């Protein structure tokens, strides 16, 4: 049985650090490093305990901006066919993860 996965936001939240003009743009280098060398980032506007908005009342979700960075990187190195969620899901199923 496969593990449940945390959903990914369909689009960046209103003040996503990866969104142009975000008040949190200074976090992009650190978040990018974490997304590419650690794990998927949880959106700061979701979940019950995160760095910016504690107890949002929204279910935890993966940050769309961080996921887009991951997808672009994985496509650039040839790990997935194109930088899309569909290509990632295809690879994930292929690897049974």
Written overview of the protein:
- It is built from 3 helices and no strands.
- With 97 residues, it is mostly helical.
- Helix 1 crosses helix 2.
- The chain is globular, with a radius of gyration of 14 Å.
- The termini are close together.
**Unreliable parts:** none
Structural class: mainly alpha
* Alpha carbon gyration radius: 14 Å
> Percent helix among the residues?
25-40%
Per DSSP, the total helix count is: 3
Order of helices and strands: HHH
* Oligomeric form: single chain
Question: What is the general shape?
Answer: globular
The gist of it:
It contains three helices and no strands. It is mainly alpha-helical and 97 residues long. The mean pLDDT is 87.
């Amino acid at each position: 049985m496969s593990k449940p996965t945390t959903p990914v936001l369909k689009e960046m939240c209103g003040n996503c650090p990866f969104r142009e003009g975000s008040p949190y743009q200074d976090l992009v280098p650190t978040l990018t490093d974490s997304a590419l060398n650690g794990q998927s980032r949880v959106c700061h506007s979701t979940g019950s305990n995160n760095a910016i908005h504690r107890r949002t009342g929204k279910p935890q979700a993966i940050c769309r901006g961080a996921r887009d960075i991951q997808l672009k990187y994985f496509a650039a190195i040839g790990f997935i066919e194109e930088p899309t969620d569909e290509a990632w899901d295809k690879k994930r199923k292929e690897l049974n993860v």
